[in-house]
């Protein structure tokens, strides 16, 4: 478990000049890495002829898979940054799917569904906050209780409200209205032919742009914007600093006059609301029906994405994106494209080997290189992967990246602890 | 302290994941109407108990079909002492055993387990109550005397679905989406692929499963169904058949979006579809769980209880294709009926394994 990997010794700070340089060029470095990865993907696409790797349909499916995970992950981020472990995200998502579906179905207005779904998630957050902050219940126990409660309670409500409805049942809602979808005009017309040309890099970019600008649900856009918004709020405002201080050292925060309870409550409510939004997305954007069990573990995967992203919004979005991308590829039936990913992973391993060698970690470099050779040979001598393996490719890819990226994960210091104010004593 | 926390976290996360995996729903069901009219017996000493699989009544599919069979038992056989019991979320095999035992002890002498999840529990419980007539839907148990297995030749109906798809496709490219890759769903795939090949071996068939066991989520994840269908449509398919339970709602949505064609499963999905969706539903491969349940209870009432494996196929009307969308099916119905007859006559052997 990554949670045990907290650093005990303070990180040795880099020399200040280098640190300043790094800070200044960090954005550029990340951009260059992303570009290089995309170029490698494009090269693999051109080499193997597996066009689904970068076409616009894959991009859109990636968004459809990544958004609910990212929303759950963001929910986890908000809560854990304030020191509350929120394993109840799954249940809060279930609240979001049901209440969103009910309000949208009754009123016929998807926006009221959105509001109700988010409020449903907030309601789940309120239960969690009440239990963990006010009553000091173990965070995990409360979260699991919410997950169980949500499934049972929503089934009860479904029997009450959906059973008799035309098209509804004890485990599903009638068909729901959808949100408007927006497209940039002309983009698909202009870039469409370019995508068909299958030119290295150019066609791939065209596919990416078309996927991101055509037929995108407004909720998808909203969800994407929430990632930078969370970063700005939590890291660039005094409010965010205070909230994070409650997760790092609530005693110190209290001594400086931060109302810790209020911040924790607020964080968990926002957390629930984000999970609820993820639920609304599942019921009304990724599909058009409330279905019991449709969250299918996405809340837990969101938590994993948050840990993957080292409790930061950008990393979390990358984790959700990686998972969503691999999942989209395999669910869309592009098993040959998943096979082509072997080659991409081999390339990534070679790159990792070079980096490790330069850093003087010879053993790690040799291991990475050996793995790369194995994968390369595997790719060269097979045409497909077993379906059983392909289904789990998102999980495997995520594990691989976590193993490769030798980042040091660091959870907020006081996460998961019961906290009581000391004021006055 | 830290370690304890981690252990607890892991244990509970695992428990949560497990209970999620068990929210599985069977993807089978029926909507076919029965053919014969019982009405004779009306034996008053028969008490019928029906235990549902996950999903329970109201799933508009498998379980509801079993319930319709139970209603016919009440209406036509005059048996009033009937009871149906819902499962609970994430229950284990021992919960199912307890439920079966409880029903038998309470004096129910006809007990039907709906769904293959009841296979092991029933195998364990049935020998203790030799006077009770047990039946299981969707699983073959032939070594216990008082268990009757009600199984369906899904591959035969799927064969006709494949033939319909092959006759309807304009791109010579069709698709199949299975919920979870289990042997049961393999039967659907095998029949479908064979049906397509019967019409035109050059037609390309996309096959996709949403999840692998033990993750049964593929039967209730419409978002996944929709993405899988979009993938197949993008690849060039224009008719999609699914055996994915509630995930099929997502498949239908994607098909309607692209104005392609959809073939339903289990129940007549044309009847369940909204007016906007109806034109795109070509036909459905249905499975008469209601008929099976009714026939079984009737056989007990008549004093000639069925035993062993009861197979419901095209010949008995236990599985079939639907013709409710007359506009779509009109021009191919003749061809399908001809194929159906050839299967019934044994001229065509439909494979059960892909």
UniProtKB/TrEMBL annotation, chain A:
Keyword Cell membrane: yes
GO molecular function: transmembrane transporter activity
Keyword GTP-binding belongs to the record: no
Superkingdom per UniProt: Bacteria
Transmembrane stretches, start-end: 62-80, 87-105, 111-133, 140-162, 208-234, 265-287, 299-325, 337-358, 364-381
Keywords: Cell membrane, Membrane, Transmembrane, Transmembrane helix
Stated name of the protein: ABC transporter permease
High-level lineage: Bacteria, Bacillati, Actinomycetota, Actinomycetes, Streptosporangiales
């Amino acid at each position: 478990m990554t949670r045990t990997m907290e650093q005990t010794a303070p990180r040795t700070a880099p020399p200040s000049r280098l640190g300043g340089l790094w800070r200044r060029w960090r954005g550029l470095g990340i951009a260059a890495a992303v570009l290089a990865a995309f170029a490698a993907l494009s090269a693999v696409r051109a080499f193997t002829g597996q066009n689904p790797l970068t076409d616009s349909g894959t991009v859109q499916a990636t968004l459809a898979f990544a958004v609910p995970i990212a929303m759950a992950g963001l929910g986890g981020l908000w809560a854990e940054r304030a020191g509350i472990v929120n394993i109840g995200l799954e249940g809060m998502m279930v609240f979001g799917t049901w209440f969103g579906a009910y309000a949208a179905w009754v009123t016929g207005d998807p926006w009221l569904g959105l509001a109700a779904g988010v409020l449903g998630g907030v309601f789940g957050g309120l239960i969690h906050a009440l239990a963990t902050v006010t009553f000091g219940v173990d965070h995990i126990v409360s979260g699991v209780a919410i997950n169980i409660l949500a499934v049972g309670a929503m089934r009860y409500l479904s029997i009450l409200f959906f059973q008799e409805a035309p098209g509804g049942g004890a485990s599903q809602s009638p068909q729901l209205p959808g949100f408007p979808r927006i497209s940039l005009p002309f983009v698909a017309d202009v870039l469409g032919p370019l995508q068909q040309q299958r030119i290295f890099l150019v066609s791939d970019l065209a596919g990416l742009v078309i996927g991101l600008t055509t037929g995108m649900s407004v909720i998808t856009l909203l969800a994407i914007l929430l990632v930078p918004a969370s970063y700005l709020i939590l890291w660039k405002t005094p409010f965010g600093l205070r909230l994070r201080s409650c997760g790092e050292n609530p005693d110190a925060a209290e001594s400086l006059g931060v109302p810790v309870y209020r911040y924790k409550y607020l964080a968990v409510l926002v957390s629930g609301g984000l999970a609820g939004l993820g639920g609304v997305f599942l019921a009304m954007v990724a599909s058009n029906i409330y279905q019991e069990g449709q969250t299918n573990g996405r809340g837990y995967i969101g938590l994993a994405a948050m840990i993957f992203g080292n409790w930061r919004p950008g990393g979390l979005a990358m984790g959700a994106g990686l998972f969503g991308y691999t999942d989209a590829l395999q669910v869309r039936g592009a098993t040959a494209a998943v096979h082509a990913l072997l080659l991409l992973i081999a390339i990534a391993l070679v790159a990792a080997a070079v980096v490790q060698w330069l850093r003087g970690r010879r053993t790690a470099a040799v291991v990475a290189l050996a793995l790369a050779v194995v994968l390369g040979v595997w790719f060269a001598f097979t045409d497909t992967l077993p379906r059983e393996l392909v289904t789990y490719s998102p999980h495997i890819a995520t594990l691989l990246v976590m193993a490769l990226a030798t980042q040091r994960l660091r959870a907020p210091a006081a996460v998961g602890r019961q906290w009581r104010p000391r004021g006055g004593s | 302290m830290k370690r304890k926390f981690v252990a607890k976290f892991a244990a509970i996360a695992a428990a949560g994941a497990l209970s999620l995996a068990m929210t599985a729903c069977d993807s089978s069901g029926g909507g076919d109407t029965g053919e014969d009219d019982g009405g004779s017996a009306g034996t008053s000493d028969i008490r019928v108990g029906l235990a549902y699989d996950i999903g329970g009544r109201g799933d508009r599919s498998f379980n509801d079909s079993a319930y319709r069979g139970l209603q016919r038992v009440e209406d036509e056989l005059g048996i009033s002492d009937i009871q149906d019991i819902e499962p609970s979320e994430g229950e284990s095999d021992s919960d199912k055993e307890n439920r079966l035992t409880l029903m038998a002890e309470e004096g129910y002498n006809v007990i039907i387990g709906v769904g293959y999840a009841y296979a092991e529990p029933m195998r364990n419980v049935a020998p203790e109550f030799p006077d009770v007539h047990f039946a299981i839907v969707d699983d073959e148990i032939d070594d216990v005397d008082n268990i009757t297995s009600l199984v369906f030749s899904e591959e035969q109906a799927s064969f006709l679905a494949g033939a319909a798809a092959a006759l309807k496709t304009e791109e010579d490219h069709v698709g199949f989406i299975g919920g979870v890759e289990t042997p049961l769903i393999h039967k659907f795939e095998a029949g479908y692929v064979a049906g397509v090949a019967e019409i035109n071996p050059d037609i390309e068939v996309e096959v996709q499963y949403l999840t692998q066991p033990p993750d049964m989520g593929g039967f209730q994840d419409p978002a996944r169904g929709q993405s899988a269908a979009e993938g197949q449509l993008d690849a060039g398919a224009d008719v999609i058949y699914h055996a994915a339970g509630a995930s099929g709602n997502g498949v239908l949505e994607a098909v309607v979006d692209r104005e392609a064609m959809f073939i339903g499963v289990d129940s007549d999905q044309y009847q369940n579809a909204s007016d906007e969706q109806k034109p795109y539903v070509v036909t459905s491969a249905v499975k008469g769980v209601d008929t099976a349940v009714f026939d079984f209870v009737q056989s007990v009432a008549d004093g000639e209880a069925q035993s062993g494996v009861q197979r419901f196929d095209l010949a008995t009307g236990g599985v079939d294709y639907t013709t409710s969308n007359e506009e779509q099916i009109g021009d191919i119905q003749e061809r399908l009926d001809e194929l159906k007859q050839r299967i019934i006559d044994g001229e065509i052997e439909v494979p059960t394994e892909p």
